[in-house]
Design goal:
The chain is an alpha/beta fold. The chain has a single domain, classed as Aminopeptidase. It has seven helices and nine strands; from the N terminus they run H-E-H-E-H-E-E-E-E-H-E-E-H-E-H-H. The radius of gyration is 17 Å and the shape is globular. The structure holds zinc ion.
Length: 262
């Protein structure tokens, strides 16, 4: 197995930089999880983690906007829709500072708030080698129209892995039912160290054990790459209120179903 740098263990998928290589048989560290309590929407503490920080903003879109900006806007909208649906204890978590410390900070903040569920919101890009150059508003810019779509990540190191996977599947199903397709490229060899094991090939749930925000949180946790902002058409879609509402409604429906089943 290749040596993995510390930074590689800490960062979310492509948009954040350097991810770890695929581990075929990494065993989950056993941490006993308390039995989940019955879910009462009004009291169910959902943390919507805004991926990255204003300072370390993640990916840059094809039109030179920051991923952090996309994440913040979408997380706020999802928060409003969840609250309207009765999930009154939903909170949007914005973290500051440099990339690596912010990952520990956000997990610690979610744990301190005794979160029942953490959903981390991100927008996707591609490995640098796939970037192509173009000009946008007079500035040299980068894009890749080759891939697109959303994706969902869970960690087997999360103490509530099964619940996390269950929610990821529900959300994947809701997105699919709304006509959206997941990003299937994460299984391809060309993704190199970003390659991931696909746990659900119907709705696009991948395994990413090392993600700090998933593995260090005490509650169930899922990371959503809502869509690609390096793909020029998809960036426009992700910027549209229609797509943002579609995703927010998918999250709200999935959370309702998840809560009911508990
Ligand atoms: Zn990100």
């Amino acid at each position: 197995m290749l040596a993995v740098s510390l930074a590689a263990l800490l960062l979310p998928s492509i948009d954040a930089g350097r991810a770890a290589p695929v581990r075929k048989v990494a065993k989950a560290r056993f941490r006993p999880a308390p039995a989940p309590e019955k879910c009462e929407p009004r009291k169910f503490r959902i943390i919507l983690d805004v991926g990255h920080t204003a300072e370390a903003y993640g990916a840059t879109s094809a039109r030179n906007d920051t991923e952090f900006g996309f994440n913040l806007l979408l997380a706020k909208l999802i928060g409003e829709r969840l609250k309207s649906a009765g999930f009154a204890a939903t909170r949007v978590l914005v973290t500051d500072g440099k990339a690596r410390p912010s990952l520990f900070k956000r997990a610690a903040a979610a744990n301190a708030a005794r979160a029942d569920f953490v959903l981390s919101i991100h927008h996707d890009s591609v490995p640098d080698k796939l970037l192509e150059e173009w000009e946008f508003e007079g500035a040299k810019s980068y894009f890749s129209d080759r891939f697109g779509g959303h994706s969902l990540f869970v960690s087997e190191r999360n103490p509530h892995f099964r619940a996390s996977l269950a929610f990821a599947r529900l959300l994947g199903k809701e997105l699919k039912q709304r006509g959206l397709q997941y990003a299937s490229q994460y299984t391809l060899p060309l993704m190199g160290r970003y390659r991931r094991q696909l746990l659900d090939k119907d709705v696009g749930v991948y395994r990413f054990d090392e993600l700090i925000v998933l593995s260090r949180t005490n509650s169930a946790a899922v990371l959503l790459e809502a869509g690609s902002i390096i793909n020029r058409d998809e960036e426009m879609a992700m910027n549209s209120p229609e797509r943002q509402e579609l995703i927010a409604s998918a999250v709200t429906a999935a959370m309702g179903e998840f809560c009911e089943r508990r």
